[in-house]
Amino acid sequence: MAQPSHHSFDVLIVGSGLAGLSAALHLAPTYRVAVITKRMLSDGSSAWAQGGIAAVMGEGDTLESHVQDTLVAGAGLCDPTATRFVVEHAPQSIRWLEALGVPFSREDGHLHLTREGGHSERRIVHVTDATGAAVQDTLMKKVRATPNITLFEHHMLVDLITSAKLNAQAGVRVSPGTQRCLGLYALNEATDLVDTFSAPHTILATGGAGKVYLYTTNPDTATGDGIAAAWRAGCRVGNMEFIQFHPTCLYHPHAKSFLISEAVRGEGGRLVLPPQAGGTRFMPAHDAREELAPRDVVARAIDFEMKKRGLDCVYLDISHQPKAFLLEHFPTIYARCLELGIDMATQPIPVVPAAHYTCGGVVTDLDGRTDLPGLYAVGETAYTGLHGANRLASNSLVECMVYARAAATAIAAARPAPMPALPAWDDSRVTDADESVVISHNWDELRRFMWDYVGIVRTNKRLERAAHRIDLLTSEIQEFYSSFHVTRDLLELRNLVQVADLIVRSARSRHESRGLHFSRDYPETDATARPTILVPPAP
Q1: Three-state secondary structure along 354-400?
Q2: What percent of the chain has pLDDT over 90?
């Protein structure tokens, strides 16, 4: 009979997107690194990123301009120090990727730079319209070829192991200054056993929580695992009410979560009503920046037009550009649309808004440190202060790289911490035959009421209804978690419900409309508003 395993490393990295793999490559020359990912190495959100990476690389552009564009998009809630830190280190990150062999698009021997909504200059470095896939593929090859990195695919994070939890089991009270992260438990899907991983340093790079909503551009892995685990371990979270809805997700019954890149609008794409509603452009009536307005503005405009006119979708039209231009700049989007019978060279593309990016997350400092010593958070899992109330297009991938390097540098400078023996996971619980049915039902209910009540436009009544349903789901899921053998579906649902609770609590505490949070009950912007920081109960 198989037995659970115990693994010991210098650094544990949970997540295999750009943030996690970047950190692994920075650390591997010196440390024994484990990369733990719940599916395959390539199954995170990074590979889905189409548009590109924002960095000041072109003539006439300035760091100050990139900073100001970020601050404007963030609607007054960006942290200026974090923003400048990322912008100043962005060019270094691009050069690092070039050195690794990422085949960025070029023109006349120079990087081809495109422009996206909210940017005042062309500063988006890209690989046609499949930047994330190209970057992820390059990093995966490097990681697989690096001896000091051990990969654990199909290992699902169950929970972090902290000194407070261990001492609580032994009946010992721990003072706040002596708490730290010691490792984690992970469900090994090959053996169906929970393995123990110990390390003095753990990095959460698990991505966002888009799957808490019915419609999302995110892959199925985006279930808020790191945010929920860090909260349970005693870490603060910030700005969880700011969920970015991408304005243009392909609307088609056979297209799941396919994003139509911001760059399509950057290269002249126009949003228009369906033919039965006149077929005319509508963004000029909503914002002077028209299609290049920040994402929250465009998403609300589309939502407004759809609800006002009873539409299923609107259309994004770039058919005025030559077919050769579209094939050169958007080969992936062109091919996918054509598979579905849409020729974007002659037809507009049906689009709807969809949950896209979690601007909030685990509170960190400039080194990626969380409130819990030994625990770091990088990428979409983290709240660094960069994104404020709305993320500027293409600032996400660069944040992953900048903070991955910063966390690796901080780990290298940290003093070695003594590691106690960690107990094996208590797996005396039984499997329940009805578990999968209940989980499937609860997952569907959660995503639907979050879409209906906590979406692009919110009200006090809707948030109250969502909170009531979350309380009921939380009790039911906790009963399952406490009594039965854990499965990936149960763990993901547990994390999603926890994240949904954090989103709703944050939204209910913000009595204004700003950036990605729009409330009909509080339509004005409060000049004195600050970031929303939630503090977990003491362990």
Answers
A1: EEEEECCEEECCCCCECCCCCEEECHHHEECCCCCCCCCCCCHHHHH
A2: 79
